[in-house]
């Protein structure tokens, strides 16, 4: 008998045991406390439980699922490494020769950096047309008085023979003679500052200076006020700051403010600034002063507390221009804010006129004036005189910009060019390149760069020479701007054109005269090295993974005991990215004679080594599901061992391994999963199998030649690792049956292959032949209307003839089926507590309802129609019932190991529910004994038998 392979190599076991001589059992540590990648635990004693089996004489006794040969032996989880490092090597392509027709590069001259226009070309649009706003303000801020005799009204009364006690007088209205306008000039309201100035000018033209007081509050209600007219006079000294005193009774106050909404959490209680404004309003009203609010907010930004205290007019195109009430608290993020921030992300510098133009371009709420202030004061932006998106949040908003409609891309670009025609060339070309790259990626990224992108790229190529060859005076003008640009450069744009930007980074580092201690992850190390004219002395060194100190090191001596390493050629550049408390850090180092401590093993998220001839990356990967073991040799090469139907050790080396979504995993602070390229083996003339791995873990594909034509039928199996779970349902689970409890712990000591779908009709016909027993016909539909005896005596024996020795086809036991169905979950369904037709094919009507008898698809659906669980198994809930190998056993509270119900009775367990049955029957714990086919299918299992191994 050939023993099963351990889950790590022998060297890993010896290394772990050499670190501590207590000889305790070791298992995977998934928590915060690590012991060299492992965790010490005590051995778990296995219980030897006898299984009662009733075997009638009329039927042959099938072989039950395999049990360990020594049941009294202590069982424990195998020694497993938590993570390892995958080495990916790629040669460096030779630099492309410059086209002879391309003009020679030269430093930028003054003409190339001059702005296209001297003044902004964009139109400054008013927040609201004055012809619409001023009559409303006059109506609310006016004072009525009596004029002369109303002759028209007098004649009407006389014609109707009414008796008159007094002559009717004409009612005339005028602006309140004691009108005070309070302007909230806080920085949070900077996008509306020009609108407030324009409002003052309009009021002066209509009301006049007599009886009109324009007051500016720059620091809220407690900071005093200054006279707006004095500020506009531009005197040498600042206007005097005066304390607020309520106006005379009967006066009107127009308060233009957001009442503290911008810059404060909207979904919580009123901010301290809002509370101060409310107290200020109450003080004026107590002094018999009428207060009217004018707020540049949307309807979803009004606070009920403010609207109850005073009438508020919304200064917004979608406002109704009469006092509004807020029915509910304001929303945390107004509708349409995310698309607006996405357009800001591709515009480095957004001033208030451009922000307003982008807001009008918003595809969700273009008339929502409050979006301007919300974007200006958002935590992801940095607002001042201009608004910019913070670099750490730019990646997500750029991805959202690529999802916007294509016509918005062109309209946004046109607005940006119009508003930024007066800016310096560096900023304009930066925005041109950023926008062109994002638009090209939004359309698939396969088309070549357009004219705008090529022009911007040539500008930066000229800029590299400018920084390299500039004199001291010119360098003082260029270096700060270029340095600031490189600090804000997004990784996606830099990666698309990493050659140019790596050379620009090298030129900046060299002209600053300081060594590069930290480089962004997008830097091309080969380009960075070649652009530096003084690379320094090259020496021999080693990149070392020290398991004792749990560190990455660069040292001049070869790896020692407790270390894995890789020799580095002279003139090698090493770039390490690691995660610290301050965020992601990057360090670029050359080889030296001393030991360089790069970072801790748990902190590093990637290592890139470039020796000028090739680049290899060390990518952190997590242990895949469904492998017997994996190991890493002294040279950091990684290999996996997969379970094989031939009962042999299939080793997958580095050349067949690749990471899945490594960059996405790195951005999320996670380790990448491994993808195993498929390996083909021939078992029999009628059966070929392929072994590989994907997101769900290891898989085994069995391909059969169809007996009815040339079509190939493929059934995929998933390797289900040994483990423990809570079998049955808790007492609190809805629709729970008595035979589902008590809930108890079950341990499965043997792994097995399980089909990812129920057996399809195509597979049944390819293996068993004959007629299709199913009621609902279709090759991809699950076979149903088959009995337990049909599966065990007709289908499985024929399948067994196609399998190698050491591999046996069988039905899963009840414990194996529920363990695989749950896939590590404890909820009623493996996707949560609630069921819906998007996830399960079941009968949606309740048996006690008076409604229709069937709400659902009313028939089975093809395999893989609905989502898989966490282990890659499809439709474990609903669709068709599935036979189990054993009959339902009686549950007890005791822990069970490899439990098995009675075998050979007329009754056998069915699991999973059906399209015809209700939601409660599709739960993971639901079990039912059945003897008749009645729309019952099955799911195959394969097991390895060591005693029969080849």
UniProtKB/TrEMBL annotation:
Cited InterPro entries: CTDL_fold (IPR016187), Sulfatase_Mod_Factor_Kinase (IPR051043), SUMF_dom (IPR005532), SUMF_sf (IPR042095)
Ranges of residues in domain Sulfatase-modifying factor enzyme-like: 719-941
A GO molecular-function annotation: formylglycine-generating oxidase activity
Record SUPFAM superfamilies: C-type lectin-like
Residues annotated as signal peptide: none
Domain of life: Bacteria
Descriptive protein name: Sulfatase-modifying factor enzyme-like domain-containing protein
Species of provenance: Vitreoscilla filiformis
């Amino acid at each position: 008998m050939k023993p099963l392979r351990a889950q790590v190599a022998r060297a890993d076991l010896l290394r772990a045991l050499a670190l501590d001589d207590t000889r305790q059992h070791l298992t995977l540590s998934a928590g915060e406390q690590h012991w060299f990648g492992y965790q010490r635990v005590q051995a778990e004693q296995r219980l030897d439980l006898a299984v009662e089996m009733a075997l009638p004489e009329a039927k042959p006794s099938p072989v039950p699922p395999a049990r360990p040969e020594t049941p009294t032996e202590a069982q424990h989880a195998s020694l497993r490494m938590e993570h390892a490092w995958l080495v990916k090597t790629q040669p460096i392509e030779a630099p492309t020769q410059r086209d002879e027709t391309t003009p020679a590069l030269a430093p930028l001259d003054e003409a190339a950096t001059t702005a296209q226009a001297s003044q902004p070309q964009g139109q400054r649009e008013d927040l609201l047309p004055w012809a619409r706003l001023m009559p409303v303000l006059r109506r609310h801020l006016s004072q009525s008085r009596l004029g002369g005799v109303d002759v028209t009204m007098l004649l009407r009364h006389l014609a109707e023979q009414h008796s008159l006690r007094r002559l009717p007088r004409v009612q005339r209205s005028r602006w309140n003679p004691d009108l005070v306008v309070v302007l909230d000039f806080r920085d949070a309201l900077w996008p509306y500052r020009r609108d407030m100035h324009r409002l003052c000018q309009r009021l002066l033209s209509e009301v006049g200076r007599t009886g009109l007081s324009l007051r500016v509050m720059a620091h809220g209600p407690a900071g005093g006020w200054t006279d707006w007219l004095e500020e506009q006079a531009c005197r040498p000294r600042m206007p005097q700051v005066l304390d607020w005193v309520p106006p005379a009774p009967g006066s009107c106050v127009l308060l233009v403010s957001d009442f503290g909404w911008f810059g404060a959490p909207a979904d919580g209680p009123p901010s301290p600034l809002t509370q101060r404004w409310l107290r200020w309003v109450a003080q004026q009203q107590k002094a018999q002063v009428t207060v009217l609010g004018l707020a540049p907010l949307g309807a979803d930004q009004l606070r009920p507390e403010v609207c109850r205290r005073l009438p508020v007019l919304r200064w917004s195109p979608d406002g109704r221009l009469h006092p509004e009430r807020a029915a509910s608290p304001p929303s945390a993020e107004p509708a349409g804010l995310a698309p607006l921030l996405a357009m800001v992300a591709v515009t480095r510098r957004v001033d208030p006129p451009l922000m307003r133009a982008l807001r009008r371009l918003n595809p969700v709420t273009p008339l929502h004036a409050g979006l301007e202030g919300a974007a200006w004061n958002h935590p992801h932006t940095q607002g001042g005189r201009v608004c910019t998106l913070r670099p750490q949040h730019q990646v997500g908003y750029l991805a959202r910009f690529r999802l916007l409609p294509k016509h918005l891309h062109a309209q946004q670009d046109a607005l940006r060019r119009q508003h930024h025609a007066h800016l310096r060339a560096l900023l304009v070309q930066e925005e041109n390149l950023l926008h062109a790259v994002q638009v090209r990626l939004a359309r698939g990224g396969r088309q070549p760069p357009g004219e705008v992108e090529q022009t911007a790229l040539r500008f930066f190529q000229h800029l590299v020479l400018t920084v390299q060859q500039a004199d001291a005076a010119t360098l003082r003008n260029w270096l700060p701007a270029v340095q600031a640009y490189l600090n804000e450069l997004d990784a996606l744009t830099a990666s698309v054109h990493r050659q140019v930007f790596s050379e620009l980074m090298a030129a900046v580092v060299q002209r600053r005269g300081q060594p590069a201690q930290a480089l962004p992850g997008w830097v091309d190390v080969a380009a960075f090295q070649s652009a530096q004219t003084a690379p320094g002395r090259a020496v021999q060194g080693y990149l070392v993974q020290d398991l004792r100190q749990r560190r990455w090191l660069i040292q001049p001596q070869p790896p020692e005991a407790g270390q894995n390493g890789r020799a580095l050629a002279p003139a090698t550049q090493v770039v390490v990215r690691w995660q610290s408390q301050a965020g992601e850090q990057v360090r670029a180092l050359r080889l030296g004679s001393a030991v360089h401590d790069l970072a801790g093993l748990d902190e590093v998220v990637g290592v890139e080594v470039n020796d000028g001839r090739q680049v290899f990356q060390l990518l952190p990967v997590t242990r895949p599901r469904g492998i017997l073991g994996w190991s890493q040799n002294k040279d950091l090469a990684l290999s996996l061992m997969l379970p094989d139907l031939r009962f042999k050790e299939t080793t997958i080396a580095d050349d067949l391994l690749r990471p899945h979504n490594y960059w996405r995993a790195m951005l999320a602070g996670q380790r990448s999963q491994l993808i195993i390229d498929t390996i083909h083996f021939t078992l029999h003339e009628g059966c070929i199998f392929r072994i590989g791995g994907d997101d769900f873990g290891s898989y085994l594909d069995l391909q059969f030649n169809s007996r009815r034509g040339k079509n190939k039928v493929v059934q995929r199996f998933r390797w289900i690792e040994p483990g423990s779970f809570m079998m049955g349902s808790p007492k609190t689970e809805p629709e729970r049956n008595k035979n589902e409890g008590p809930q108890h712990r079950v341990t499965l000591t043997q792994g097995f292959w399980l089909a990812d779908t129920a057996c399809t009709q195509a597979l049944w016909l390819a293996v068993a032949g004959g007629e299709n027993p199913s009621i609902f016909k279709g090759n991809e539909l699950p076979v149903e209307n088959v009995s337990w005896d049909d599966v065990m005596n007709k289908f499985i024996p024929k399948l067994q003839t196609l399998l190698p020795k050491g591999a046996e086809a069988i039905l899963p036991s009840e414990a194996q089926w529920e363990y695989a169905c749950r896939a590590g979950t404890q909820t009623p369904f493996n996707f949560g507590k609630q069921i819906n037709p998007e996830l399960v094919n079941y009968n949606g009507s309740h048996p006690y309802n008076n409604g229709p008898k069937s709400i659902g698809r009313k028939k089975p659906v093809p395999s893989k129609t609905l989502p898989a669980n966490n282990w890659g198994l499809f439709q474990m809930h609903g669709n068709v019932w599935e036979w189990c190998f054993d009959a339902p056993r009686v549950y007890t509270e005791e822990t069970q190991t490899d439990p098995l119900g009675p075998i050979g009775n007329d009754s056998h367990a069915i699991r999973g529910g059906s399209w015809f049955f209700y939601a409660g029957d599709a739960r993971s714990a639901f079990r039912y004994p059945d003897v008749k086919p009645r729309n019952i299918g099955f799911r195959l299992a394969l097991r390895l038998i060591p005693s029969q191994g080849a």
